[in-house]
Amino acid sequence: MTTLASCHCGAIKFEVSEAPATVTVCTCTFCTKRGTLCTYYTPAQVKLSVTPQADAVYSRNGMNKHHHCNVCGCGTFSEVPTWTDYKPDFDNPRVSVNVRLFDEFDFASLPEETIDGRNLL
Q1: Domain boundaries, the chain
Q2: 72: which of 10, 12, 46, 98 is 20 to 30 A away, CA to CA?
Q3: Keyword Zinc, does the record have it (predicted)?
């Protein structure tokens, strides 16, 4: 089932090939301050439609690229490595999508996982 999402103003839209099965709370300082609930996909599972001037990217250390809308400010998605045994696997990238942006989707009933992002590195 394709699931659609967008930022508040619609300048950044995306669709994913299947609805999320879980939501993830990351405890890293960035995700905590951003307030994002995430779900993860492979890049092939996410179709992005981004107005170039609306897409802004923040990266503290170059490992993760966090995108947000430059117009309305919504945190939209992040480009991240897969993590295995507290180590980044850059050969298997993932897209972390902000579940709060899905259109007409009830994420409150999904199981919630927590990642101890503050202690990954």
Answers
A1: 3-119
A2: 46
A3: yes
Structure tokens at 72: 């309305």
Give per-residue pLDDT as tens, 84-102.
777 888 999 999 999 999 9
Q: Write the DSSP assignment of the chain as a string of letters.
A: --EEEE-SSSSEEEEESS--S-EEEE-SHHHHHHT--EEEE-GGGEEEEE-GGGEEEE-SSSS-EEEEETTT--EEEEEEEEEETTEEEEEEEEEEEEGGGBTT---TTS-EEEE-GGG--
Q: How far is CA 119 from CA 27, 76, 82, in A?
A: 9, 24, 15
pLDDT digits (tens, 9 = 90+) for 44-66: 999 999 998 999 999 988 889 99
Q: How far is CA 24 from CA 40, 71, 72, in A?
A: 8, 26, 23
Q: How far is CA 59 from the centre of its chain?
A: 14
Please identify, in words, the CATH class of the domain defined by 3-119.
mainly beta
Tokens read off for 77: 């998605």
